[in-house]
Amino acid sequence: MRIAVVGGKLQGIETCYLARRAGWEVVLIDRDPRAPASGLCSAFFCRDIVKEPEELTQIISDVDLIVPAVEDFETLQCLAGVAKKDSIPLALDLDAYAITSSKKASDHLFHRLALSVPQPWPDCGFPVIVKPDESSGSKGVRKIADQATLDLFLEKNRPNLPQWVIQEYLEGPSYSLEVVGLDGRCVALQPTVLEMDVAFDCKRVIAPAGLSKDLDAEFRAVAGALAQTLSLTGVMDLEVVYHGGSLKILEIDARLPSQTPSAVERSTGINILECLRQVFVESRLSENPQIQTERGVVYEHIRVWADRLEVSGEHIMTQGGPLHMENGFFGADTALTNFSGPDKPWVATLIISDTDLEKAWKKRCQVIRTTMEACRLSRYRDPVPDGSRVRTERSG
Predict the structure, then answer these.
(1) What's the CATH class of domain 2-92?
(2) Alpha carbon distances (Å) from 287 to 175, 188, 316, 380, 382
(3) Does position 68 have pLDDT exceeding 80, yes or no?
(4) Which position among 41, 119, 347, 383 has the lowest Cβ density within 10 Å, counted as fewest Cβ atoms?
(5) What confidence score (pLDDT) does residue 161 get?
């Protein structure tokens, strides 16, 4: 199997890694010559496909499937046009993406289906969360604790207020669930736990999530209702928070997410790329993908510099140039990293698993200790969204 991946940042890293796990060849295309995923692919082409669509046609002439790993709508439209012209399957539901890429359009969908969501401002109290309408992940997200701070934000952004969503901030654990659909029929994969850094960027994914049978069923039912309403063909991820005894929907995105599919693959053996290959290449949906096993998995990002190791959100993985994959990295099963020596700053995504979650977490802690000892580090930080609760430890 040979695929083309367009986009070499976070989604591109995810896709290239999962393709390698599946034993596939990857042709990566990105306009950044130092795209992080460029070290994880079989072949890399530095191109701007919007400006050079004819080059794209030549590059993808022998691939079996195109997987978009970008969120720029102009690029996606260009990609859809070239894929249609060249009769190459494109793993994207552009109509569903157009709805889910807008938080306001998504909120309208949630309300139409009478789903449980955070209360919008001004119908809620403080604190509130402010986030851009058309940006996924944590980009631009901020927590505002009082009216005076919100007034300053509103005044500063008054001309662009329609581009922002303001809603109540809900305390509680966050969960994610990926859904693969074909004409609205869908299969949900494994729920995972999301843990955030101080900027609400996901720093760690835990699998399995350990939800009760009832909550797991509720989560899957909500995901199925959304996929059916969108008539989804492709992939969608659903993020919720457990608050006040129920699951509240935070957002949905009809595109291949980063982080969680790798954790699910390591835990269950189910590779979401294989699910997408079946949908887009074979026009079939495997409604009951077989779980080989359900191992405990800790998937997290670390940054090392000076005398410290810090767990951080996934944005750090785009800041150090091309990544490479190492097995057995300081005791981790696998790492995606730019590590070139203990005396230089570096980042890594650590993927750690064991027969159950408790053993996986103990293994993870040993990996951190081993890394700190080998790199002669004395400080460790694991920030959380509420800055007053930043966990700081010293080794030795």
Answers:
(1) alpha beta
(2) 22, 9, 36, 43, 38
(3) yes
(4) 119
(5) 77
pLDDT digits (tens, 9 = 90+) for 346-363: 999 999 999 999 999 999
User: CA nearest 84: which of 105, 118, 45, 56?
Assistant: 56
* Token digits of residue 182: 């074909």
Query: Are 329 and 350 in contact, with CB atoms under 8 Å apart?
Result: yes
Q: Of 248, 244, 228, give the one whose Cα is nearest residue 236.
A: 228
* Contacting residues for 108 by C-beta, under 8 A, at least 6 apart: none
Amino acid at 37: A
| Local structure of 240: helix, strand or coil | strand
- Which contiguous run of DSSP H or E holds residue 248? strand 246-253
Given a contact cutoff of 8 angstroms between Cβ atoms, the answer to whether 11 and 26 are in contact is no
The CA distance from 293 to 355, in Å, is: 9
Q: Of 251, 230, 222, nearest to 102 (Cα)?
A: 251
CA distance 172 to 193: 11
Residue in 189, 187, 192 with CA at minimum distance from that of residue 176: 192
CA dihedral 98, 101, 107, 110 (to 10 degrees): 70
- pLDDT, residue 390, reads 40
pTM score above 0.90: yes
In sequence order, the β-bridge partners of residue 131 are 165
Specify the amino acid at residue 38.
S
Residue range 98-113+171-282 forms a domain whose CATH class is: alpha beta
The H-or-E segment that residue 246 falls in is: strand 246-253
The helix-helix angle for 213-230 and 103-112 (nearest 10°) equals 110
Alpha-carbon gap, residue 206 to 185, rounded angstroms: 27
For the chain, the domains span 2-92, 98-113+171-282, 128-168, 296-394
b/e code 323-337 from CB counts within 10 Å (16+ = b): bebeeebbbbbbbbb
| Contact (Cβ atoms closer than 8 angstroms) between residue 43 and residue 7 | no
Burial of 22 (0-12, 13-18, 19+ CB in 10 A): middle
